[in-house]
Write a structure and sequence with these properties.
Elements lengths: L1 H30 L4 H5 L13 H6 L10 H32 L5 H13 L6 H11 L5 H25 L3 H9 L4 H12 L1 H17 L2 H6 L8 H4 L11 H21 L1 H10 L5
Helix pairs in contact: 1-13, 4-7, 4-10, 5-7, 7-10, 8-9, 10-13, 10-14
Length: 280
């Protein structure tokens, strides 16, 4: 009986903690279906009679107001996030494999230095990046944003994949090479399938970092041809007013692709996080 009570209290604490964590997101989702008048008037958010789809209709150009180029913003975010994620995985997989499998002089110092670059806040780098990119003509261009996100994601991706690849027995690769495989064949046919879960975990983290990033993108993009979805949230702010309903509707559109991608790779993501765990 005492054990059941403790377990029930534990689940209750977890439920309350998760509810507290999810409350801001739930507030955004609810207000995405409410008019601005109801939000600013502090009406009861559980009054479902005032709910409407007009906010989403206006975003998609189906309402009576001038729509934002949401499809262009979505295309920009998808191209930038997917490209930077794929490039980060390629570089991170090579770097993680090198740190996990080879021994060379200065390996530990190089790894620590690489991790320290990730410790610098992106906001602190916004001014020097803005100046350098303006000299190089990379402001308001997709390659400029992709390179910044690539530099952000590579250290973290190398760190993750290094931990995952260390859990793959090296003897499997050696046995494959004894059977006649080249180093590349042994990696691609033996080690890569075993580390696929870790690669999926690294990919989802890199994608979410690029998809949700706002501070640097707001400094490097200006036109609808390069603006990402998070930066487009500022289009709902004016000098004296803020369109909270439209901003919440846009936030919901930002959340949906991230959730779908997470559910699609959920199986590999859980396997990858388990593979990367510390065994003792």
């Amino acid at each position: 009986m005492r054990k059941n009570v403790r377990q029930a209290l534990l689940w209750l604490c977890i439920f309350l903690a998760m509810g507290f964590i999810c409350m801001p997101g739930l507030w955004v989702v609810l207000n995405a279906f409410r008019p601005n008048v109801a939000i600013l008037g502090n009406e009861n958010p559980l009054n479902f009679s005032s709910y409407t789809l007009d906010n989403f209709r206006n975003l998609l150009g189906l309402g009576g107001i001038q729509p934002l180029p949401v499809l262009a913003y979505f295309r920009n975010s998808m191209i930038i996030s997917m490209t930077s994620t794929v490039m980060a995985l390629v570089v991170g997989l090579a770097g993680g494999y090198a740190f996990a499998r080879f021994h060379f002089r200065g390996k530990n110092a190089m790894f620590v230095g690489l991790m320290l670059t990730r410790a610098i806040p992106g906001v602190a780098l916004s001014l020097p990046i803005f100046i350098i990119w303006s000299w190089l003509g990379l402001l308001d261009t997709m390659p400029g944003v992709i390179m910044v996100y690539l530099a952000m994601n590579v250290p973290f991706t190398i760190w993750l994949l290094d931990g995952f690849l260390r859990q793959v027995p090296q003897e499997l690769s050696q046995a494959a090479r004894i059977d006649g495989c080249t180093a590349w064949q042994a990696f691609w046919k033996v080690e890569f399938p075993l580390a696929r879960g870790g690669i999926a975990a690294a990919g989802i983290f890199a994608f979410l970092t690029s998809w949700n990033e706002f501070a640097l993108a707001s400094q490097l993009t200006r036109s609808p041809d390069t603006k990402t979805m998070p930066v487009a949230l500022m289009d709902f702010t004016a000098q004296f007013t803020i369109d909270w309903a439209g901003m919440c509707a846009m936030a919901v559109l930002i959340i949906i692709p991230a959730l779908l991608l997470t559910f699609l790779v959920q199986k590999h993501l859980i396997a990858g996080l388990t593979l990367g765990g510390v065994k003792g």
